[in-house]
Amino acid sequence: MATINKPLKPKPLTKLRSPILTLILCISAITLLCLFSSLISTNGFSFSSPKNLPNKPHRQHTTHEKYLYWGSRIDCPGKHCESCEGLGHQESSLRCALEEAMFLNRTFVMPSRMCINPIHNKKGILHQSDKWAESSCVMDTLYDMDLISETVPVILDNSKDWYRVLSTSMRLGARGVAHVEGISRVHIKENSHYSNLLLINRTASPLSWFMECKDRNNRSAIMLPYSFLPTMASQRLRDVADKVIALLGDYDSIHVRRGDKIKTRKDRFGVYRTLHPHLDRDTRPEFIHHKIEKWVPPGRTLFIASNEKTPGFFSPLAGRYKLAYSSNYSGILDPVIENNYQLFMIERLILMGAKTFIKTFKEDDTDLSLTDDPKKNTKSWQLPVYTMDEVE
Ligand SMILES: *[C@@H]1O[C@H](CO)[C@@H](O)[C@H](O)[C@H]1NC(C)=O
Ligand SMILES: *[C@@H]1O[C@H](CO)[C@@H](O)[C@H](O)[C@H]1NC(C)=O
Ligand SMILES: *[C@@H]1O[C@H](CO)[C@@H](O)[C@H](O)[C@H]1NC(C)=O
Ligand SMILES: *[C@@H]1O[C@H](CO)[C@@H](O)[C@H](O)[C@H]1NC(C)=O
């Protein structure tokens, strides 16, 4: 089975370089994400342009296909059954499940909806009851199933295919389906009892789906890169990102994670501590300026995506760069975006479409980053550092 370490098949990114004179300056509230996960990789990303291939035929399913089902909600059953996590967290879980399907050479049965944490939904859902349908969105408004299927075949759990699999497996009984829990994928693969079954129904870890992929520390066991799902955005989201990218022209980008990541807590002596001691400092405009000046020449257009809520927080950078945010393009984005997960997916595509993309944390050796603090949760609460002295 092929192991994929890089984003798939980079195609050249065509950019519209003609100067755009009219820009819609809609001053709208900067929509921000709280749990903003930046599991993105820059290298080789491209927007494939299936625009030119209208009515791409849907993938044909063969009668030999076998299926893997992990349940109808990402991370559920689990600790997030009531609420749910941010997009990046759920993507880690989904990626883990997709990797298992690849490992077992099975078609993955995707949940047809993704749970949206109410704090990530700006459409007033906090005023409604917290019913599942109201706090979730349709999976294929986020991701392109056909595009995903080119790497790992998927069907949705509200599709005809899935109902056909269910009825066939019921007819076959114990010869059709196995319910597994706490059994490793290696065991399932090597045990002939499982290999012939039409359906494997896994009850994933009650902590989080991605706990099934604890061995991600073993890099050779990783089959899908972090950038996989971000680049699998639905056609509609890719199209709107392409429009903004065309308007931005030649630009660089920074993803500035503050909000959730800079939180502090008091230790038993009343001293504030944080998990990322330099992050608050490194994501302030004066430090960003210091850090990126060697990568981004003055006068460049700089696209900023951030969960910082203070208006004008990054304005000091405007002395050197032409700043742009997704709010600059709300005239294009607002008619398309239904929730903040979709906005985040578009922002990620715009970030990745830049000539130079600087992340908050380094994820790959080749990444440029604002801070040298590790992204991983170190569990070590340290004193925040604000002095410049430590900067090289
Ligand atoms: C994977 O499954 C497909 C059917 O879905 C089958 O044609 C193919 O031979 C299988 N590959 C391996 C390596 O088992
Ligand atoms: C999968 O297994 C769980 C737990 O045993 C069960 O509740 C669920 O109905 C099963 N789903 C399918 C589609 O077999
Ligand atoms: C790492 O993963 C590879 C591929 O799955 C496996 O062959 C190897 O035994 C694993 N190594 C460790 C230390 O777990
Ligand atoms: C984005 O909007 C801000 C505030 O209205 C403005 O200062 C900036 O020039 C705009 N950027 C672009 C690229 O149009």
TrEMBL record:
Residue ranges occupied by any DUF7075 domain in the UniProt entry: 82-263
Keyword annotations: Membrane, Transmembrane, Transmembrane helix
Signal peptide: none
Superkingdom of the organism of origin: Eukaryota
One annotated Gene Ontology cellular component of this protein: Golgi apparatus
Keyword Lipid metabolism belongs to the record: no
One Pfam family recorded for the sequence: DUF7075
Stretches that traverse the bilayer: 20-40
Protein name, entry field: DUF7075 domain-containing protein
Lineage: Eukaryota, Viridiplantae, Streptophyta, Embryophyta, Tracheophyta
